[in-house]
Write a structure and sequence with these properties.
The chain starts with 8 loop residues before the first helix and ends with a helix. It folds into two domains: 235 residues, Type I PLP-dependent aspartate aminotransferase-like (Major domain) (Aspartate Aminotransferase, domain 2); 122 residues, Alpha-Beta Complex (Aspartate Aminotransferase, domain 1). It is 37% helix and 14% strand. The strands form three sheets. It has a seven-stranded mixed beta sheet, with helices on both faces. The protein has a three-stranded antiparallel beta sheet with strand order 7-6-11, with no helix packed on it. Strands 10-12-13 form a three-stranded antiparallel beta sheet, covered by helices on one side. The radius of gyration is 21 Å and the shape is globular. Helix 3 packs across helix 8, helix 4 crosses helix 7 and helix 9 packs parallel to helix 12. With 367 residues, the protein is an alpha/beta fold.
C-alpha cells in the first residue's frame, strides 16, 4: 500500500531550501521582524505579478477582506452579496465589517457564484459583491462587473485560492475595486505562517488600507485602526517563492489534467469543469460523487488522504441558523456539500502517486 498525502509542503521547501534558510537567517540577523525591506520588496513584486498599482500586505487573508470592505465604507446593516460555497472567512469578514452577508447559489457546472442569480438578490440596502474564485476557478468577472456597474455596487474579489488564475487572459484580482489574497501555508503561494494582502488600483483606498492595518498610521494615529501586519519573515519567504509560482502552477495544472483525463471515464464522478477562456490554477482538485463518504473512506483505508472543502455550505452553518435557510433556497450548494471530495494535488506529486490514487478510485467502483 502506498501512502499519498493530501499535500506535501516539505517537498516544496526541499526544492528551495538554501533560499528559504538564507531568508530566515537574514531576518534574524537584521532583526527585521516587522516591516522593513522584505515587506516592501514583496508588495512591489506581487502587485507587478498580478497587475495592479498597489499591494498592501497584512496579517492574513481574513483581515484583507475585512480591511478592504472597511476601506470601501461599509456601514452597519449594509448587504453584501456573496457565494454560498466558500471558506467561512468570506462571510465572516462581511459580518465583522458591519455588513450582512446575502448568499447566492453557485453554478451547476462549476463552484463559483452563479452570476445569473446575483441581480435578484439586490435590494436598496445592497452595497457590494464579494465573488470567490473557489478552488482556483475564476468567477465570471466580466458579467459580475457589469452587474455592479448597473447598480453602483463595489466589488471585492476573494482570490485566496486563485493566485495567477485568469479569465480572458486577465488575472483575477484586477477586476474589482479591490482584491484580497491569502498566503496561508497550503495556498498555491504559501508563507510559513499566516499572511495576506489587498490589491487595488485606487490610490486613496490603498493609502487608507495601509493606515488602517497599522493602527491608523504608525506614530500619527489619524484614526483608530487595527494591528494587521505581514511580518518580515513571511514577506521574505513569499518573495523567495514568488519566482517559482508560475512553474509550480503549470505542474499543478498538469496534475489536474491527468486526473481529468483518467477519471472522466468514470460515470460515477464529475470532474472539474473549466469555462472557455479561463485559466484555473487548481488550488484544489475537487470532484463530485454521490457516494462521497464511501469513496473517501476507501481512499483513506488505502493510504490516500483526501479533504472535503467544505462539508457544509455557508448558509447552512450554525452561525447563520437564525436566517432559517432551507435546502431549496440554495439547491446547488446544498447538493454539492454532500458530494464534493478534494483529491491530493500539489506540484511535487509524483506520477506514480497519482496513478495510485486513480487506481484506488477505480478499484472502489469496480469492486
Amino acid at each position: 500500500m502506498m501512502n499519498v498525502p493530501f499535500s506535501n509542503l516539505y517537498a516544496q521547501y526541499e526544492q528551495i531550501k538554501e533560499e528559504i534558510d538564507e531568508v530566515i537567517t537574514r531576518t534574524i540577523r537584521d532583526s527585521a521582524f516587522i516591516g522593513g525591506q522584505s515587506v516592501k520588496k514583496f508588495e512591489y513584486e506581487y502587485r507587478k505579478t498580478i497587475g495592479t498599482e498597489y499591494c498592501i500586505s497584512c496579517a492574513n487573508g481574513t483581515d484583507a477582506l475585512y480591511i478592504a470592505m472597511r476601506a470601501l465604507g461599509i456601514k452597519s446593516g449594509d448587504e453584501v452579496i456573496t457565494t454560498g460555497h466558500s471558506w467561512f472567512s468570506t462571510s465572516e469578514a462581511i459580518s465583522q465589517a458591519g455588513g450582512i452577508p446575502v448568499f447566492c447559489d453557485t453554478e451547476t457546472s462549476a463552484f463559483c457564484i452563479n452570476s445569473d442569480l446575483i441581480e435578484e438578490k439586490i435590494t436598496e440596502r445592497t452595497v457590494g459583491i464579494v465573488p470567490v474564485h473557489l478552488y482556483g476557478h475564476p468567477a465570471e468577472m466580466y458579467k459580475i462587473m457589469k452587474i455592479a456597474s448597473r447598480h453602483s455596487l463595489w466589488v471585492v474579489e476573494d482570490c485566496a485560492q486563485a493566485h495567477l488564475a485568469s479569465t480572458c487572459e486577465r488575472n483575477v484580482g484586477t477586476f474589482g475595486n479591490a482584491s484580497t489574497f491569502s498566503f496561508y501555508p497550503g495556498k498555491n503561494l504559501g508563507a510559513m505562517g499566516d499572511a495576506g494582502a489587498i490589491l487595488t488600483n485606487d490610490q486613496e483606498l490603498a493609502e487608507w488600507c495601509s493606515l488602517f492595518a497599522n493602527h491608523g498610521g504608525k506614530g500619527r494615529h489619524l484614526f483608530e485602526g487595527i494591528n494587521s501586519r505581514m511580518d518580515g519573515l513571511q514577506a521574505g519567504i513569499l518573495a523567495a517563492k514568488l519566482p517559482y509560482l508560475a512553474a509550480w502552477t503549470e505542474k499543478r495544472i498538469n496534475v489536474a489534467k491527468y486526473y481529468s483525463e483518467k477519471l472522466s471515464k468514470l460515470s460515477e464522478l464529475v470532474t472539474p469543469i473549466e469555462r472557455e477562456s479561463t485559466y484555473s490554477v487548481y488550488h484544489q482538485y475537487t470532484v463530485l460523487c454521490d457516494d462521497r463518504d464511501g469513496l473517501k473512506g476507501h481512499l483513506e483505508e488505502n493510504g490516500v488522504e483526501t479533504h472535503i472543502n467544505y462539508p457544509v455550505g455557508l448558509p447552512f452553518l450554525p452561525a447563520y441558523s437564525k436566517m432559517n435557510y432551507r435546502p431549496d433556497d440554495f439547491p446547488v450548494v446544498h447538493s454539492n456539500q454532500a458530494r464534493i471530495l478534494s483529491l491530493p494535488i500539489y506540484p511535487e506529486l509524483k506520477k506514480s502517486e497519482q496513478d495510485y490514487v486513480i487506481q484506488t478510485i477505480y478499484s472502489y467502483y469496480t469492486k
